[in-house]
């Protein structure tokens, strides 16, 4: 018997079958929005439901029809910083849409956010799932940060430009490292480097800087391994001090081989103007044939107001592929 009442769901204590049922919602929603992409793998998505970063928590709700999940929602939040903020995800199975399930899950998530003492909810919608933006408006949310998702066809990447961007001045103090596993000796320095992402545009979202720790980096590494995913990380080190002044990383799964996903790219403000961002991006692209065999496309996401990074991507041949919007809902 169908009930429209979302119920609490703890992936860490639920049965594998129930986790898999929720993962089927995630996979079906993805396939409806991105039918040309390699499909998500239910077992991998089910495993991802159990992941939590140190210092953070998640809360899940599911609408069930017997053993079948029809809709799923989740809140993610920090226990130590940005205590006013919570990030939400909400998906309804394509076969169960237009029945009010999204609204019921949203109400439940809002009540949970209030109970946690949070005053701001953020969430993302995508152009290729066109119902998302109108739904966000019905909730009273405000568009806070427009994002551009771009795609590079790898065989079209300009080889001369990649070579030019990786040629460095003789005697400069910068050294490039490329890692598939993060070395312990650099872990604290890399955590500090990743926090430079706090300088990326935030649009109209009221949030404080967030912290990255070595424990978080190792946790994310374990989660990637559990999901069958690989990461390639490029860093630039200032050899005079040992400080890392730039980084860029990409992610790839052999099970979804055509796609590589760009993670973060950042250069410390004190080291900008020396072409380090271009060097990092080009070095990663040149390494992809060995790191990600079978890859054909690279996808990246940038705030529309991030002109510097968009300029690098456009020069490399990235073209607009999709748009996203980050929304905020004040409680």
TrEMBL record:
It comes from Deinococcus petrolearius. Keywords: Acyltransferase, Transferase. GO terms for molecular function: acyltransferase activity. PROSITE patterns: GNAT (PS51186). The keyword Acyltransferase applies. SUPFAM superfamilies: Acyl-CoA N-acyltransferases (Nat). This is GNAT family N-acetyltransferase. Residues 9-164 form the N-acetyltransferase domain. Gene3D superfamilies: 3.40.630.30. Its EC number is 2.3.1.-. It is an enzyme of class 2 (transferase). Pfam families: Acetyltransf_1. It comes from the Bacteria.
């Amino acid at each position: 018997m169908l009930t429209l009442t979302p119920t609490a769901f703890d992936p860490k204590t639920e049965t594998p079958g129930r986790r898999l049922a929720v993962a089927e919602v995630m996979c079906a929603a993805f396939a409806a929005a991105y039918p040309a992409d390699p499909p998500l793998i239910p077992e991998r998505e089910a495993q991802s439901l159990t992941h939590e970063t140190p210092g953070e928590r998640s809360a899940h709700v599911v609408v069930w029809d017997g053993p079948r999940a029809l809709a799923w929602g989740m809140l993610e939040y920090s226990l130590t910083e940005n205590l006013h903020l919570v990030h939400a995800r909400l998906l309804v199975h394509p076969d169960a849409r237009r029945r009010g399930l999204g609204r019921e899950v949203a109400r439940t998530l809002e009540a949970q956010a209030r109970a946690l003492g949070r005053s701001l909810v953020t969430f993302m919608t995508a152009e290729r799932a066109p119902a998302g933006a109108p739904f966000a408006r019905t909730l009273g949310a405000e568009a806070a940060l427009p994002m551009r998702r771009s795609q590079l066809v790898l065989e079209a990447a300009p080889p001369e430009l990649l070579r030019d961007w990786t040629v460095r001045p003789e005697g400069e103090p910068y050294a490039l490292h490329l890692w598939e596993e993060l070395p312990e000796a650099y872990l604290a320095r890399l955590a500090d480097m990743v926090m430079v992402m706090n300088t990326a545009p935030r649009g109209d979202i009221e949030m404080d800087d967030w912290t990255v720790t070595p424990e978080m980096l190792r946790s994310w590494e374990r989660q990637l391994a559990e999901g069958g995913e690989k990461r390639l990380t490029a860093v630039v080190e200032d050899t005079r001090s040992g400080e890392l002044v730039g980084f860029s990383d990409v992610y790839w799964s052999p099970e979804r081989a055509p796609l590589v996903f760009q993670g973060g790219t950042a250069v410390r403000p004190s080291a900008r103007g020396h072409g380090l961002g271009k060097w990092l991006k080009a070095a990663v692209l040149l390494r992809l044939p060995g790191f990600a065999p079978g890859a054909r496309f690279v996808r990246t996401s940038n705030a529309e107001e991030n002109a510097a990074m968009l300029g690098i991507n456009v020069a490399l041949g990235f073209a607009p592929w999709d748009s996203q919007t980050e929304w905020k809902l004040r409680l």
